[in-house]
Amino acid sequence: MSVNKNKMTCQQANQIDLVDYLESLGFKPTKNKGSDYWFISPFRKEETASFKVHRRKNVWYDHGSGVGGSLIDFGLRYFNCQIPELLEKLSSNFSFHTPLVKAPVKVEQKTESPIKILDVTIINSLDLLLYIKERKIDFSIANRYCKQVVFEVQNRSVKALGFVNDQGGYELRNSSFKGSTSPKAISTFQNNNSELAVFEGFFDFLSYQMINRLEDPSSRDFLILNSTAFFEKSYPFMDSYSSVQLFLDHDPTGLKFTQHALLRDTKFQDASSLYASHKDLNEWMQSMGKAQVNSIRPKLR
After folding, report:
1. What ranges do the domains of the chain cover?
2. Quick check: 3 pLDDT over 50?
3. What is the model's pLDDT at position 293?
4. Intra-chain end-to-end CA distance of the chain, in Å
């Protein structure tokens, strides 16, 4: 199989079998167990293999440096180049590699307890209205993007704010509950723009809409991860944009993914300076208070 180098995309590149590709670079697995293949790390000298490829998922993880990802992520780090140069390298040798992954692998996370959806309506519960107010989100914005979801968990009925994902599952929140239904997935709002804003959770996304509520909400596209487990899986989606602003949490995981993206491509921008002294955008919103937010109303670009 051969692919015209001008037609090579990141998605096609990430379908190349990582084990075959590493072997073409001269790296042979030292052992394998099931889908796990272990290599001496290509990034340094070592005696004990610490570089693992999960062949079924077609992803790698380097235990020595604590980084991992797709074939594209490996190539950018190994060759120290940008995406166009890497795709050119891959295109010229693509016929030597066997595509393994036929479609992006879906990451599903199960909640600790089964959740059964009983009803989905507009938001009308007093408790949820008070909860939205506590989170410093206007009802008009919450009502635009969220629903009131009644569900059953552990033989009891619960009402929560529900934020739907691209596969029909819900992120569920109230003052005492945080969970999600299956399937777990990202949420996107695609308006055919070249700019993308990325958030970890939907309350950060709602906070952004609060701050920029005088703007046309379709002026850019949005990606809400709903779990950082989807960040690296979302690179093919993010790579289709010319500019990507990251509003990730100020915790070790959020900072790690932000730094990784900044090193990966110059299109990524760290947009978290606004809430530098807080964990996330919504925590900053709550600390500032609605009156102060109205007076400041910064432009997040």
Report:
1. 5-96, 116-180, 187-296
2. no
3. 45
4. 43
Cβ partners under 8 Å of residue 298, min gap 6: 211, 274
Q: What distance in Å separates the CA atoms of residue 280 and residue 29, rounded to the nearest whole number? A: 41
Matching residue, tokens 């102060």: 292
| Mean pLDDT score across all residues of the chain | 85
Helix axes 83-93, 71-79, angle to 10 degrees: 110
Q: Are 260 and 236 in contact (CB under 8 A)?
A: no
> Residue 275 and residue 147: Cα distance in Å, rounded?
27
Evaluate whether 11 touches 236 at the Cβ level (below 8 Å).
yes
DSSP string for residues in 141-199 = HHHHH-EEEEEEETTEEEEEEEEE-TTS-EEEEETTEEEEPSSP--EEE--S-SEEEEE
Q: Rounded distance, CA 222 to CA 190, Å?
A: 7
pTM as predicted: 0.60
> Are 241 and 195 contacting, i.e. CB atoms less than 8 angstroms apart?
yes
Q: Which CATH class is domain 5-96?
A: alpha beta
CB atoms within 10 A of CB 174: 19
* Range 187-296: architecture per CATH: 3-Layer(aba) Sandwich (3.40)
Q: Please write the tens of the pLDDT for every residue from 269-283.
A: 999 998 988 999 999
Sheet of strand 268-270: strand arrangement: 187-189, 221-224, 195-199, 243-247, 268-270
Residue 91's CB is within 10 A of a number of other CB atoms, namely 19
